[in-house]
Amino acid sequence: MLRESEEFLSVNWMEHFGGTDQEAQIAKIREHIELSLAKSGLFAVLNVGRILNQVQKFTEKKLAILHEPTRSDPSHSGVYGYRHEDLLVAELIMEMVMEIYPSRQT
User: Fold this and answer.
1) What is the H or E stretch that residue 48 is in?
2) β-bridge partners, 18
3) Are 103 and 43 in contact (CB under 8 A)?
4) pLDDT digit string (tens) for 75-103?
Protein backbone atom coordinates (compact mmCIF):
# COMPACT_ATOMS: atom_id res chain seq x y z
CA MET A 1 0.00 0.00 0.00
CA LEU A 2 1.18 3.49 -0.81
CA ARG A 3 2.10 5.72 2.13
CA GLU A 4 0.86 9.32 2.26
CA SER A 5 4.34 10.78 1.73
CA GLU A 6 5.22 8.52 -1.22
CA GLU A 7 5.01 9.58 -4.86
CA PHE A 8 4.96 5.98 -6.10
CA LEU A 9 4.76 2.41 -4.84
CA SER A 10 8.21 0.81 -4.89
CA VAL A 11 8.37 -2.52 -6.69
CA ASN A 12 11.03 -4.64 -8.35
CA TRP A 13 11.25 -5.76 -11.97
CA MET A 14 11.96 -9.47 -11.56
CA GLU A 15 12.89 -10.10 -15.19
CA HIS A 16 15.68 -7.53 -14.96
CA PHE A 17 17.87 -10.30 -13.55
CA GLY A 18 17.08 -12.64 -16.45
CA GLY A 19 15.81 -16.18 -16.52
CA THR A 20 12.38 -17.49 -15.69
CA ASP A 21 13.05 -19.09 -12.30
CA GLN A 22 11.11 -16.93 -9.84
CA GLU A 23 13.02 -18.28 -6.83
CA ALA A 24 16.31 -17.18 -8.41
CA GLN A 25 14.88 -13.78 -9.36
CA ILE A 26 13.61 -13.21 -5.80
CA ALA A 27 17.04 -14.21 -4.44
CA LYS A 28 18.64 -11.54 -6.67
CA ILE A 29 16.15 -8.94 -5.45
CA ARG A 30 16.97 -9.84 -1.84
CA GLU A 31 20.66 -9.27 -2.62
CA HIS A 32 20.07 -5.82 -4.11
CA ILE A 33 17.18 -4.35 -2.14
CA GLU A 34 18.07 -1.28 -0.07
CA LEU A 35 15.50 -1.82 2.67
CA SER A 36 15.86 -3.71 5.91
CA LEU A 37 13.53 -6.64 5.39
CA ALA A 38 11.37 -7.72 8.31
CA LYS A 39 11.46 -11.39 9.20
CA SER A 40 7.69 -11.50 8.70
CA GLY A 41 7.84 -9.56 5.40
CA LEU A 42 6.72 -10.96 2.08
CA PHE A 43 7.36 -10.43 -1.61
CA ALA A 44 4.27 -10.56 -3.83
CA VAL A 45 4.61 -11.49 -7.51
CA LEU A 46 2.27 -9.69 -9.89
CA ASN A 47 1.89 -9.29 -13.65
CA VAL A 48 2.27 -5.68 -14.81
CA GLY A 49 -0.17 -5.96 -17.71
CA ARG A 50 -2.86 -7.51 -15.54
CA ILE A 51 -2.49 -4.77 -12.92
CA LEU A 52 -2.76 -1.99 -15.49
CA ASN A 53 -5.80 -3.58 -17.17
CA GLN A 54 -7.61 -4.41 -13.92
CA VAL A 55 -7.17 -0.95 -12.40
CA GLN A 56 -8.25 0.82 -15.59
CA LYS A 57 -11.24 -1.50 -15.96
CA PHE A 58 -12.65 -0.70 -12.49
CA THR A 59 -11.46 2.89 -11.99
CA GLU A 60 -10.63 5.91 -14.09
CA LYS A 61 -6.97 5.62 -13.06
CA LYS A 62 -4.26 5.01 -15.63
CA LEU A 63 -1.31 3.59 -13.75
CA ALA A 64 2.23 3.65 -15.08
CA ILE A 65 4.96 1.28 -13.99
CA LEU A 66 8.36 2.81 -14.62
CA HIS A 67 11.88 1.47 -14.20
CA GLU A 68 13.54 3.51 -11.40
CA PRO A 69 16.92 1.83 -10.84
CA THR A 70 19.04 2.89 -7.89
CA ARG A 71 22.78 2.54 -7.41
CA SER A 72 22.43 -0.70 -5.47
CA ASP A 73 19.14 -2.01 -6.90
CA PRO A 74 19.03 -2.14 -10.71
CA SER A 75 15.59 -3.79 -10.65
CA HIS A 76 13.88 -1.03 -8.63
CA SER A 77 10.73 0.29 -10.29
CA GLY A 78 7.68 2.31 -9.30
CA VAL A 79 3.91 2.21 -9.72
CA TYR A 80 2.67 5.74 -10.48
CA GLY A 81 -0.79 7.20 -10.95
CA TYR A 82 -2.60 6.75 -7.67
CA ARG A 83 -2.54 8.20 -4.17
CA HIS A 84 -2.49 6.66 -0.71
CA GLU A 85 -6.24 7.25 -0.26
CA ASP A 86 -7.10 5.28 -3.41
CA LEU A 87 -8.05 2.17 -1.48
CA LEU A 88 -9.85 0.57 -4.44
CA VAL A 89 -6.63 0.71 -6.47
CA ALA A 90 -4.70 -0.88 -3.60
CA GLU A 91 -7.33 -3.61 -3.29
CA LEU A 92 -7.31 -4.31 -7.04
CA ILE A 93 -3.52 -4.61 -6.98
CA MET A 94 -3.70 -7.02 -4.01
CA GLU A 95 -6.22 -9.17 -5.89
CA MET A 96 -3.68 -9.62 -8.70
CA VAL A 97 -1.07 -11.35 -6.50
CA MET A 98 0.08 -14.53 -8.23
CA GLU A 99 2.73 -15.84 -5.81
CA ILE A 100 4.08 -14.98 -2.35
CA TYR A 101 7.69 -15.41 -1.17
CA PRO A 102 9.23 -14.70 2.25
CA SER A 103 11.31 -11.52 2.39
CA ARG A 104 14.20 -13.45 3.89
CA GLN A 105 15.71 -16.69 2.63
CA THR A 106 14.69 -19.58 4.88
Assistant:
1) helix 48-58
2) none
3) yes
4) 999 999 999 899 999 999 999 999 999 99
